[in-house]
Amino acid sequence: MTGTLVQIITITAFGNEFLKNGKLTEFYPENSSFQFCDFVDFREIKKKNFFTAKKEIITAKNPLNWFENLKNNGCIKLRLFHQTEKENDHQLAGSVGGGGNWFIETVYPNHSDFWVGNWNHDKNLTEKPWQVTYGKAVKKQPTRNQQFDLENTRNELNSILEKITDFAFKETTENWGNIFEKAKETLNSENPETDFYHTDLISTKEYELHNRQLLLSASKAFVFGGMGSWNDMGFENEETNKNIMNFQQNCIT
């Protein structure tokens, strides 16, 4: 899974914990999603008065400050919102800024605001080269009434993983087959976080096992990136190429 997606999931998950309990421990900058970040701040476009021009202003210097601001302003909860831009979004999912747009929806009693991340790589910074800014892209919009049948989603993912595991063992390498097989096994694992790099992706005490299994299974099946990744593969047989493209798109959506 890309660092951008890991971080937006983490911020959403722990943000909800803060809104619920009013406190967090060992979150920022300790969480693994921030390990390569020089800073993570939050900005809005504002102006001081009627006569001044609009200006980008840092409203929170880090995620904890942002959570505090949200809570003080009456935010109820955070949700992830994905917006597809192009038909080939699944092919770009492994790149920074690729795979469509992921927003953090901040839900208030009568409206929602939407925040989007911007990652800037500073080549002069070796250990922590990423400078991340989340900006309020859209404000005071109707709340997205997203309803998902988790059991149906779980069954669909299991079906896809069964097919792609079989495909990988037959058409690619044992390594790819093992990756998808482990992702499928995670759907029924008592410890779905096992063998996943970001063990602190979410606060496990805030999520039921059923939901953690679904999230971690999908996370382990995310095999998209640059050279050598799943979406970099090609085959001489046109029908095989068509099948692998379908698998890629299903795994993303």
Q: Would you give an account of this structure?
A:
With 253 residues, the chain is of the alpha+beta class. The protein contains 6 helices and 6 strands, in the order αββαββββαααα. The protein has helices spanning 3-21, 63-72, 150-171, 174-186, 209-220, 238-252, and strands at 37-46, 55-60, 77-83, 101-107, 112-121, 130-141. A hairpin with a 4-residue loop joins strand 4 (101-107) and strand 5. The protein is globular, with a radius of gyration of 20 Å. Residues 88-97 have low confidence and may be disordered.
Count of DSSP H/I helices:
6
Uncertain spans, ≥5 residues at pLDDT below 50? 88-97
C-alpha-based Rg, rounded: 20 Å
- Helix-strand makeup class: alpha+beta
% residues in beta strands? 15-25%
- CA-based shape: globular
The largest sheet, given as strand count, sense and whether it forms a barrel, is: 6 strands, mixed
| Strand order in the sheet with the most strands | 2-1-6-5-4-3
Question: What can be said about this structure in brief?
Answer:
The protein has helices at residues 3-21, 63-72, 150-171, 174-186, 209-220, 238-252; strands spanning 37-46, 55-60, 77-83, 101-107, 112-121, 130-141.
Q: Which helices and strands occur, and which strands form pairs?
A:
Blueprint: H1 3-21, E1 37-46, E2 55-60, H2 63-72, E3 77-83, E4 101-107, E5 112-121, E6 130-141, H3 150-171, H4 174-186, H5 209-220, H6 238-252
Parallel strand pairs: 1-6
Antiparallel strand pairs: 1-2, 3-4, 4-5, 5-6
